[in-house]
Amino acid sequence: MTPADRPDPAGPRTAEVGEAAGPVEPVGPVELTPTAGELLRKLHAAHGPLMFHQSGGCCDGSAPMCYPAGEFRTGGSDVLLASLAVAGVEEPVPFWMSTSQYELWRHTRLIVDVVEGRGSGFSLEAPEGVRFLIRSRLI
Length: 139
Known about the structure:
By secondary structure, the chain is an alpha/beta fold. The protein has helices at 34-47, 99-105, and strands at residues 16-17, 30-32, 50-54, 65-68, 78-86, 93-98, 108-116, 130-138. The strands form two sheets. The chain has a five-stranded mixed beta sheet with strand order 1-5-6-3-4. It has a three-stranded mixed beta sheet with strand order 2-7-8. Strand 5 (78-86) and strand 6 (93-98) form a beta hairpin. The longest helix is centred in the N-terminal third of the chain and has 14 residues, at 34-47. It is globular.
């Protein structure tokens, strides 16, 4: 990974989530749909501060996993792509991705959305009958 490919050293990028009917205006490499923002507010109310990690491995590796903040240990093999601001949630929601997955997706804007159906049992939304899903746009 070259320095130009790394997240901004001045700090995490932020995507603001509003109440609009479509995807928010992209600010960083990751954005949330309004539906994802609603689910994050619900999960935050039940579990407190949250985080995302996307590994690219097994167990729904193409889907971002949502955990209580700090529940998933990140390290040198992970990249912090964004720190997402969600209306109604005090603290930003960090979005981490494994470096190997980032190398494959670094030329895309990631859009976190929600679809019906159960995903991995590891992610907080699994009992809700929905799952987070990544949609992407080339940049």
